Amino acid sequence: MFRCGAVIPIAMSYASGFVLNNPTEVGMLRTATARYKAEGCDCIIALGGGSTADSAKAIAAGVRFAGDVWGLFEHRGANIASAEPVYVVLTLSASGSERNGGAVAQDDAAGAKWSIRSDALFPRLSFVD
Fold this sequence. Notes:
The chain has 129 residues and is α/β, with parallel strands linked by helices. 26% of the residues lie in helices and 21% in strands. The protein has helices at 26-39, 50-64, 70-74; strands at residues 24-25, 44-48, 86-90, 102-107, 112-117, 125-127. The strands form 2 sheets. A 3-stranded mixed β-sheet has the order 1-4-5. A 3-stranded parallel β-sheet has the order 2-3-6, covered by helices on one side. Strand 4 and strand 5 (112-117) form a beta hairpin. The two termini are 25 Å apart.
């Protein structure tokens, strides 16, 4: 049984207005990672398209990372040892993020857009219709 401490609106589609189109801004990832830790959640369920799935994977790695989530991107994911479980409910098929171990994000302030990749980031289960 999973413990759901809260519904964190990072796992909503673009229509919700929270997860922006690709790539996801790192400020949202920092906020969501902190909230996940504070709520004591057990997993992330991403409901949306590729940006939502990428966000979920970055947060899943960030929760277990000792530093700032952007540090994962600075090292291209080489420092990802593990990640929280991610489940994807795909509403828009385009990027293949529901079936890979990669994610993209950007830091608007630094003008940087980077990716991470790790076997630990593959979703545990993806629902595709």
